[in-house]
Amino acid sequence: MALGQNHTTVTRFILLGLTDQADLKQLLFAIFLLIYSMTLVGNLGIIDLIRTSSPLHTPMYFFLSVLSFLDICNSSVFTPRLLTSFLITDQSISFSGCVVQMALMNIHGTGEGLLLAIMAYDRFVAICHPLLYRTIMSKHLCVQLVVITYAVGVFISAVQTGNAFSLPFCGPNIIDHYFCDIPPVLQLACSDTTTANIILLFFSALVIVPTVSVILISYAYILAIICRMRSLEAQRKAFSTCASHLTVLSLFYGSAFLVYLQPNPESASAYNKILSVFYTIVIPMLNPLVYSLRNKDVKAAAQVRIHYLSRREICQKDI
């Protein structure tokens, strides 16, 4: 629609959600409630373990605790509203609510992508330069990297959210998605979105391409070191760990890449909704499983923590 036409400014948007089939909504509610519960329990458990276990006070687990925090925040931006959409008929969201949701999505999504690259670099230093690890990955540097991660996330979020909502919206107001993502919101703008799509593509590439490059280069060096190991059992365990990490990274970056780096990201809304489920809901659940529960240090810390909590509960009952 051209500017200057007499249209009412949009004050609310309608989110169509994942499906309009009533018979699927109860099943999807149960599935996503389970996923969200596992996300909260897994990530809160990891944060608690790292906080209370002194052997886990290392750069790797510091970054892992930050990742768990980001996963909780990221999942909580989308999942509660998605669960509500399966139970009620009112699917509307205010204009300001849509802006806030998009801004939070960009902050946590960008932060997670950058943090995954930092974690890959941390593993590269630990495996390829073990004698210099403590010197390079100092506590001061780790805190600086996390601060930079959030700063970049806020900057990218401000640019991308401002890019989307600086356009006029005068109707229709129906978003074919389960949250206020940038491509479907741009589709509702009442003006030409060519420039907005170019900005979306550029800043998405500005985050995704460098972080993916750091991850691929870091793991290439790590795999080269693994191949030189003399023990076949050590090689097998290392390859298994790297394979699980790279699988989750592929799901996260692959789905984000296909959604945000399309030449015309407005054209495949149903396809994008399915892809978005991976990086907004599924990945936050998988991260603690992949990065922690396969780790012997975390397992040992979990056993100590469970033993401590069990003894405390018994003592409280005796009192």
TrEMBL record:
Transmembrane segments: 27-49, 61-79, 99-121, 141-159, 198-226, 238-262, 274-293
Membrane association type: Multi-pass membrane protein
GO cellular component terms, semicolon-separated: plasma membrane
Superkingdom per UniProt: Eukaryota
Presence of the UniProt keyword Hydrolase in the record: no
GO molecular function: G protein-coupled receptor activity; olfactory receptor activity
Main subcellular location: membrane
Signal sequence, renumbered to the chain: none
InterPro entries: GPCR_Rhodpsn, GPCR_Rhodpsn_7TM, Olfact_rcpt
Family the entry assigns: Belongs to the G-protein coupled receptor 1 family.
UniProt protein name: Olfactory receptor
